[in-house]
Predict the structure.
Amino acid sequence: MATQKKPAVDAVLVGFGWTGAIMGMELTAAGLKVLALERGEMRDTNPDFAYPRITDELSYGIRGKLFQNLAKETVTVRHTPAEVAVPYRQLGSFLPGDGVGGAGVHWNGHHWRPLPDDLRIRSRYEECYGKKFIPGGMHLQDWGVGYDELEPFFDQFEKVCGISGKAGNLLGKIQPGGNPFEGARSSEFPLPPLATINSALLFEKATRELGYHPFPQAAANASRAYTNPHGAQLGPCNFCGFCERFGCYMYSKASPQTTLLPTLMHRPNFELRTRSHVIRVNMAADGKRATGVTYIDAQGNEVEQPADLVILCAYQFHNVRLLLLSDIGQKYDPATGQGVVGRNYAYQLNGGASLFFNQDQPMNPFVGAGASGSVIDDFDGDNFDHGPLGFIGGASINCITTGGRPIQQMSVPAGTPAWGAGWKRAIKDNYLYTTGVGSQGSVMSYRDNYLDLDPTYKDVYGQPLLRMTFDWKANDIAMTQFIGSKVEGIAKAMGPRQYQLSFKKPGDHYDLRVYQSTHNTGGAPMGTDRSTSAVNRYLQVWDVPNVFVMGASAFPQNFGYNPTGMVGALAYWAAKAIREQYLKNPGALA
Amino acid sequence: MPHDNARRGFLRHSIAIVPVAALSGAACTQETPPASAAPPPAGASAVPSAAYSPAFFHAPEWAFIQAAVARLIPADDTGPGAIEAGVPEFIDRQMDASFGHAAIWYMQGPFVDSPPEFGYQGKLPPRDVYRAGIEACDAYCKNTFSGKTFAQLDASQQDQVLKGLESGEVKFDNLSAKTFFGFLLQNTKEGYLSDPIHGGNKNAGSWKMIGFPGARADFADWVGRPGVRYPLPPVSINGPQG
Ligand SMILES: Cc1cc2nc3c(=O)[nH]c(=O)nc-3n(C[C@H](O)[C@H](O)[C@H](O)COP(=O)(O)OP(=O)(O)OC[C@H]3O[C@@H](n4cnc5c(N)ncnc54)[C@H](O)[C@@H]3O)c2cc1C
Ligand code: SF4
């Protein structure tokens, strides 16, 4: 029972991270009265990310000061539908954000556009390798939107963020020094690439000699001072090494705070309410329209907020959970394969090599930025022949140093004791001389990897937690094993004294304890077929046209890259459809 | 029964004896080790820089913590040991911090045993795991080593017990010995390697040893200079270190 009812707004945004901030900018620009509800605290560069306090590995990197508080709400996890799920009790595998800016505060800034063929993956594999190539139980889906349609929105997001990088394909012409596999871009990156760190110099040389195509990682860490199209100013990144898991005190990392909020917060038709945890979307009696949302405010009151448009911007998990709690769309059922909400949860399958060099080759690992380093894309997507290999997907392979924070980023050679004098000697001998080569692998979606509501566990408001049923599948393990063989070749060619590999093997299970990535995807997949997608190509809920769902929940499966380039572009694409089509004629978009 | 009152009383009486290297100001209020007590670890000359009175740990627990971390990261000529680095102080402070209370962990039941990949699924927050774990470990030591607590054992016996906890060979009645060891090792390394503001890593000793410059956080001039070692010593959030 709501105890309070607030005056209606034109649009309510649930969650105020990257997608919330983008939607806020775009919808206020269209003249709407927009309210953002964010469950966490207000946060800004000053004082929340100020130096030197932010350079505290223990508080931010290990204890997770900026991340979601799991005591209030978490997910439960199991490997198969036959098991009982248990709560994700401590942060490990993924680190959802909380507070203004969301995970856009403590992300790294690796920026990617998907490959054009990633967006039409089923069509591509069927054309190249035949229908039979796609394993049974795999829900391989085209996205329903093409690369060329999204290109202007990738471009827009890159200019807002001030991405540092080198184009590899400008207007269809391959450019030296960039990624030759990328889709055509309409313009060069707004800033030149970040300077190349020591280890990436070795990686570039080795991969080039092996016949691959290294290029600098496109980074939302500004390589120069930059003013974005909204007039927001970014300062040059100084490779502080406290980037991933931390806020940037230099105003260098693109975040909602550095790129959008300086303008948005001053718009008279915008309002932000923090410490406002949305518990459901309210529906009209016929179930065909949302009437607004209900949230719990900072004092614990239940508040009803009427709105004409409800835009879920609450991150992948929370979006799916809110749809399920609000009974929007048909729930997915793995037994029949019917239903769409909760369908196609996917993740990423990463692996890597640790390289140990001699003492005459200091790597200075503390000199790093969230996205500083080099990459190859030769074994990603369908950039290589899958025919003889028998699996779908691939991985980008990188040499990136985000920093050398001694608790989390310490690497020691295999066989080193976990403690005692031997451990101490090993950290002394290796810390300065270590680097890594990593891979970020795609994960396909499957009939029995999905999300629903947990029957047992509840959040602090007494509502069911989201339940994740997920494990690695043979296709994805075959992918990562193949990538492992390529990474090994690169590691050897970089000439370390010693290296060791870590790639998942057949029989390995998804492990919640170890950080892998906060690249959770799916659960409210987009598409053009309403029997396999929860939202249409404009991220609009099929049967509830005044609800839109932003974020990586829309991904029908995951690719071999970080998601936010795609998440940002989709938000701009959906915003344009709302502004130019929906507002003129509120209803289902064709 | 680990919670047996008689045993508790007994534990209190046979107050722990700590290696010389483990003596901090607070530990000095305990009995002086007799000649037969454990010899200090090889090369141990470390004396903690400042006295610290534990806020969470009781005296016998404090003796255990000091003895255990002194074995997990011993003092030798490679670099500071855990005692010298103030790791016990760090752990004590963590027990009252959000970590000790599991403040941002989901701690609602039911609690179900599950494979290790699902992470710690126990009911107890870390501070209670420490309390129960130390008590159980000292009880185990007494049973196995004719009445001696962990802190009273010699270094090789202590190593043997720690290895037993780590491997799961040593088992406690009401608690996973492995879980207890896991928290202890994790926190010991954290206290050794984190910024000195948290009470460990005194004078940034471990950072000096490995070559990490700490909170300098400004390396724009140091990108892409292969073969050149960064020259400046570490700073803490609190400023210059030694
Ligand atoms: C450590 C880390 C590193 C990363 N590195 C990269 C990278 O290098 N490149 C990349 O592309 N991506 C990266 N990501 C992922 C990136 O951060 C996300 O893709 C992006 O932030 C998603 O934007 P979003 O708007 O969907 O969600 P978020 O930015 O997370 O915002 C969601 C907001 O909604 C709020 N919210 C949730 N539920 C509710 C509710 N019920 N009521 C009210 N508010 C709610 C949350 O508190 C949060 O503030 C990284 C993520 C992490 C955690
Ligand atoms: S590495 Fe650069 S972008 Fe990242 S936090 Fe440091 S200064 Fe900011």
In short: Chain A touches chain B through 69 residues (CB under 8 Å).
